[in-house]
Structures
1.
Amino acid sequence: MKNIVALLILFASVLTIQAQQVLYESIMHDGVEREYILYIPANYSGNTQVPLVFNFHGYGSSATEQMFYGDFRSISDTAGFIIAHPQGTLFNGVTHWNVGGWTVGSTVDDVGFTEALIDSISANYAIDSLRIYSTGMSNGGFMSFLLACQLNHKITAIASVTGSMTPETYDYCTPVHPTPILQIHGTNDFVVPYSGATWTKSIDDIIEYWVSYNSCNPDPTITNLPDIDPNDGSTVIHYEYDDGIDGVFTEHYKIDGGGHTWPGSLFGGTGTNNDVDASVEIWNFFLRFKLLEGILGLSDSKEELIKIYPNPTKSIITIETNLSSPMDYKIMSIYGNILNVGIVTSDNPVVDLSILPPNIYLINIDKYTYKIIKAR
């Protein structure tokens, strides 16, 4: 990620983004000025409560880098949620989140900072307190697990990309409600080893913990996802542990051969899987869940009623739905620019992409966003 800043400057000069707001803010917490970047989507009006997604950067990284690296902005512009990108403080001269493990010795209260940030953002924006989610890269994934354990009453669901749980988080985890967990991790991650280390639990350990805590079915549905990019050196296996308390799922995207990277990122580099887009998968996971008076409930989800195929395609995709009413769709570039709009019905489910050049695109249907590949 060391070259990301230079790339950000280049990309910032060419990206066309709608009337969103990127706000550089700060609050005082424990006598320290704590910074964060707030992304307000173009369709935010303040008249309706919207979800809040925390997106925590990795160890040694920054809020700015994470905003581009694990990018949710184009999804936010269509789905209508606000994104908070908090900035970590220095520990031994390196930006970090105090999660235990290799950060033992830090005195920063990042859980308290996050709670204060929720309160501050909620005081200024119409935030749905039943839909507050956390995700992050590496140390940011560890931070999301810490929030699931220690700020559970305010966090609906979390997703970790290349993160895990430190022994301290694992041993002192005290959630108060069943918590949907999504873990995305590469088997060739040599920064946060898939098999664990003295300072980090193995991915199998944390999946087992949350499957047990959520009382999910211990026998997962296992799906080998299509190898869309055979040149990225990795494939994806999806594990879905369903039927938990209050309808909770525990899920895992195992990137076989994947490294310490954010799948689908434009800035991923070597070891990045391109068969899935982590940001898209995380949001589609989050929006299925909301808190209900301190317990968890399922959102009104259409995800299982929508299928898009073939993907990749050279021209035509079919959007299969069991819903009787028409559904609007938008075809967007990966930067969020709208390229085509239309309506699909059960009688006319076909969308023609033949006018688009070969590339990766996003299609937004209702509140859901999917990645589609236009092949050569």
2.
Amino acid sequence: MATADQGRSEAFRLLPGVDEASRLDGIAALVDGPERELVLGLVRDVLEEWRGEVASGELEAEPLAQRLEGGALAGEVAARLAHERGRGLRTVVNATGVVLHTGLGRAPVHPEVAAAMERAAAGYCVLEVDRFTGERNERDAHLGSLLERLTGAEAGIAVNNNAGAVLLCLQTFASGRAAVVSRGELVEIGGSFRVPEIMARAGVSLREVGTTNRTRAADYERATEEGAGLLMKVHTSNYRVVGFTHEVDPAELAEIGRRTRTTTAFDLGSGLLEAPGAEPLDMLGPEPLVRDAVASGVDVVTFSGDKLLGGPQAGLLVGRAEAIDALRRNPIYRALRCDKVTLAGLEATLDLYLAGRADELPARRMLRATATTLEPAAARIAAAIGSHAGFEAEVAPGCSQPGSGSAPGVFLDTPIVRVRHGERSPDELAAALRAGDPPVFARIHEERLHLDPRTLLEGDEERLTAAFDRLASG
């Protein structure tokens, strides 16, 4: 009887080397292609994993021989190659009902905005030169003028995202000093971005005032007596404190700042920008408006470009000209500033606002859609899916969400398509949809796959039903 060591040695002898494996049927053609080095690396990875299984006693000689004879090595390499090819940024169908889905890229931009970004990326453009004088200028000078017109601010600039905007603000006005924030506003947003930690990175000491549920003007005033560099208000965009509460409104904070000669800032986070001719997004509840924040008199207001604004990812800073100029002069601004593609998208987005076309922006259109207007699409999707053998689909009342920490606790009534299959679990269906081309993302709730028509863009309904056609035929 062979010992365990003998059996292990026999299994090791069966394992081919990378060179030998590269000549096997199903692998040789891949190795001869343009992805040779990637394929050889995958072959090496699979063989190394199998070698580990042999060493641990999990894989013996006979099962290993069966794997090799059955073409398992080529199959595993091909599967990993397909997975590698499918990684990275890819267009998807968002059927989750989360309008500003961080995992899926937040706000989809307007087609005209996308076209402007494509033009900027594809060639040369006027970036840091004045086309009329030939002199060098600031790359976001025109964006600043658009922000001034829309928000009522004296000046405005943009950086790569709102976290960068907050960092720049803290570092500019409070580096080596203290920034004063209410205990009820020490937020954490996605990706473990915490206000106290970003302060530490900016070289700023945190001075907490008030309590979790109640902070008064006197709390800020006492803090300024100790030499604070910045009084900062943070909108709790992804949670609400309710009940026995009190907070200092931005106008009060601005007055304290003027009286004590301390810079004031208001981080809005999501950044709801309303414009003439646009329908108000009342369904979001008491979300602060950018123009109102500017009108309060605080020195700087920061907000996102890719959330409720509905544009590309950016952090926007607007406010008093003196404060914005100080932000621009900070060397860190250069490290955070936007590239030409983002600036083109922001300018085109704000142009839509100024033209009275803000409601054409996809994110705003999705947020404003009613259950009644979405019902026909839900019915069509359910009928198409239910026509396949093994599938059951029904329309039922459900809810969508704004997403990305915007308007916490707000749910939008939506007709949901609930799908089940006689032999495949909701998890299996969801995985198969994500692996398709294009990938489709859905929700799972109460043992059903949920498809939400609210977040479908033009053409997505057809792509969604085609994905189920492929599932049914496969």
